[in-house]
Amino acid sequence: MKRQKAAPGQQLRWMKLDNAAKIYPAARRRNWNNVFRLSVTLNEDVDPEILQTALEHIIVRFPSIAVRLRRSAFWYYLEEIPRAPKVMEEFSYPLTHFPFDDILTCAFRVLYYRGRIAVEFFHAIADGNGGIIFLKTLAAEYLHLKHGTEIPCTDGVFDITEAVREEEVQDDFPRYAGTSAASRKEATAYQLKGTLEADGYKNIIVGELDAKAVVDKAHEYGVTITELMAGVMIKSFLDLQEQRVPKKRRRPVKVLIPVNLRRMFPSETLRNFVLYVTPGIDPALGDYTFEEILRELHSIMALELSPKRMAARIKANVRMEQILPLKLLPLFIKNIGMKIVYDLTGEKKSCITMSNLGVIRVPAEMAPYIDRFGFTLGVQHTSPNNCTVISYGGKLYVTMIRSIEEPVLEQRFYTALKKLGLNVKLASNGR
């Protein structure tokens, strides 16, 4: 099959940042950018030359991901890159600092190590849904070139000979905004503190569980997998806060959970189309058993995860960018204002992010070559921990990342899973 390549002198597409993406360039720091990582581990070592060719073949099919960040007088925007970046052998820990100057050249990077192919994305260009489609398509093309395997374009593998559809590159937030805006007020949550790693090192621990056992345990409590994991996380934070903070100074414990809006609205965009809910427990109301935490979480999620409520929240976000005086402000003033807003609200309304990408499926022709998939969120600027959940091949992987030395949260969280009767196999990049 003939693979699509960029034509000489091809007109490069550019596009405005989507509604969710606008905060990421403004909120950046000299040593921090909002980046996430997706990976696939094959059962053989990666050939870097073939991986490079595969990347060159697929990028024209992904003009909203194969981009660089650009800036004008009034806004940031994305511009399609003229050629694929060089794949790099991974030499350090995952999610090493992604300098902003590099993002201005190419807003993603492709890494390999032994049998692993990883893509790290600046969050302004995509969410996990778009990212996993890009990764699966890259892996499919790599396997096609390496083994001659014809892989059908199903289960999120794109046909790279197909023309790009406009639905894939549009910002769908304005399209699905409601008629009234929801309030954005939220209580400040408890923040875990610790000793920062001196050199920016990120500690990563992956817990591997049997997916069916987790499903059965969630059903036993009458909740979803996400609610079960969030409940364990909230209980862990409540116990830590009880140890560390006097009763009168304790704050609500909340988990930020990304919600894939494509499950509510008929969207095909590969750009960001995610909002967040922050369910939690206020210890000022009294002590909670684990069962009570789960019941409270389940009720909150059932209430919040409705199309009408999400449309109202979209409206609240979209309304801000439609105010004419704000549109006319120079970019450097917008950045100052958005950074202040982010510092005051963005990371303080939850204790941690827990993102569940769900069950990853691939065409049957790919499966014999694949051992597992991985998903890691970078830590925030001030919050030292983040958590992801992903399932593949009957296994569920819970990955925790931290920027501090003390593994107190991971110890409580994984111990709590074991106390529920779930067998957890741990792996770490610990030094």
Would you give an account of this structure?
With 431 residues, the chain is of the alpha+beta class. The chain has 2 domains: 14-171, Chloramphenicol Acetyltransferase, CATH 3.30.559; 176-428, 2-Layer Sandwich (Chloramphenicol Acetyltransferase). The chain is 32% helix and 22% strand. It contains 12 helices and 16 strands. It has helices at 23-27, 48-58, 100-103, 128-147, 166-169, 211-221, 225-244, 290-304, 307-321, 324-327, 331-346, 408-419, and strands spanning 14-16, 35-42, 67-71, 76-80, 88-89, 108-113, 116-122, 203-210, 253-260, 274-277, 280-281, 352-359, 370-377, 385-392, 395-402, 425-428. The strands form 3 sheets. Strands 8, 9, 10, 11, 12, 14, 15 and 16 form an 8-stranded mixed beta sheet that branches. The longest helix has 20 residues, at 128-147. It is globular. It starts with 13 loop residues before the first strand and ends with a strand. Residues 1-8 have low confidence and may be disordered.
Query: Architecture of the largest domain in CATH?
Result: 2-Layer Sandwich
Q: Portion of residues in helices? A: 25-40%
Count of strand segments: 16
| Beta fraction | 15-25%
Q: Indicate the CATH class of the largest domain.
A: Alpha Beta
Residue-averaged pLDDT? 91
**What's the CATH superfamily of the largest domain, by name?**
Nonribosomal peptide synthetase, condensation domain
Radius of gyration: 21 Å
| Uncertain ranges | 1-8
Largest sheet: 8 strands, mixed
Number of helices: 12
* Principal-axes shape call: globular
Secondary-structure element sequence?
Answer: EHEHEEEHEEHHEHHEEEHHHHEEEEHE
Distance between the termini: 46 Å
